[in-house]
Write a structure and sequence with these properties.
The protein is mainly beta and about 280 residues long. The protein is about 10% helix and about 30% strand. The chain contains four helices and 14 strands.
């Protein structure tokens, strides 16, 4: 399993060798109550366990424990030199080393490669591209929850409207406020501001399908209201399901690398949002 995202409260992992490739359901979120220490995106785990539960429609593990598989004992040719692991690759000083690459003189042999140069050094898989047809298929989408996904040529909401018509901080379930909220929910280009202010959720138009985005923790400088109508060549992140919103799908971006405006640089998956050292 490879770590695809580390958040302030846990980690997201993907089984990179599932029993039924392509069927989904090979991703999970482990709720850790705080940021996992000495761990980063790209790390491969040999073990992840915990208590399985559902939270607002999202399957997750609580009270997780995990073991990080060292690079020099993972059975992979991480640096592409044709030599695998300690005993065969001379760059592995011990089976506990976290790099098969020649490190700068004086570097601790347990240090990770700061900037992975290939998918061998960071086996995060390609994100699943969300087409309008896929977004509309709830069963297939559920199989992708907690996995890395992406939308191409998405448009930031063009309208940001508040349905809290009486200013009490809530949107009522009936009457004019409910009608306003229903109209906004049905419009792929509309973000309701009460929900945005409370939860940080804004929306994109993904080919006629609405998808919620959360970015405020990972990219606090980005204000979707100032970017209304902006076309994004790519938006990427982990998929979450929240059953009480419509539609129930949220993409949580991991850092500013995951939000790519037209003409901006697109980092490869094995470098995007990968810090040089563990947290």
């Amino acid at each position: 399993m490879v770590v695809t995202r580390i958040s302030t409260e846990g980690l997201y992992v993907t089984d990179i060798a599932p029993l039924r490739p392509g069927d989904g359901y090979n991703h999970i979120y482990a709720f850790n109550f705080n940021t996992p220490q000495n761990l980063r995106e790209c790390d491969v785990l040999s073990l992840l366990d915990g208590i399985v539960g559902e939270f607002l429609g999202l399957t997750e593990l609580s009270y997780p424990t995990w073991n990080v598989l060292s690079v020099c004992a993972d059975g992979l040719d991480n640096d592409g030199d044709g030599l695998v692991d300690f005993g065969a690759d001379p760059d592995c000083v011990s089976p506990d080393d976290m790099s098969e690459t020649t490190l700068p003189p004086g570097t601790n042999s347990k240090a990770r490669v700061q900037v992975p140069s290939s998918s061998s050094e960071c086996p995060i898989p390609e994100p699943q591209l969300l087409t309008p047809e896929l977004v509309a298929d709830g069963v297939r989408m559920e199989g992708l929850e907690s996995g890395l996904v992406a939308v191409e040529n998405a448009v930031v909401a063009t309208t940001f409207t508040s349905c809290d018509l009486n200013g009490d901080g809530f949107v009522e379930y009936e009457g004019a406020e409910a009608e306003c909220n229903d109209d906004c929910s049905a419009d792929p280009g509309c973000t309701e501001l009460t929900q945005y202010y409370e939860y940080g959720q804004w929306t994109i138009d993904a080919g006629g399908q609405k998808v919620f985005i959360v970015s405020q923790d990972a990219y606090p400088d980005f204000d979707p209201r100032s970017a209304a109508g902006m076309r994004l060549s790519l938006i990427r992140g982990v998929l979450k399901q929240i059953e009480f919103i419509d539609p129930p799908w949220i993409i949580e971006i991991r850092c500013r690398d995951d939000l790519v405006a037209e003409g901006a640089e697109l980092k490869p998956r094995y470098q995007a949002c990968v810090p040089p050292v563990p947290r």
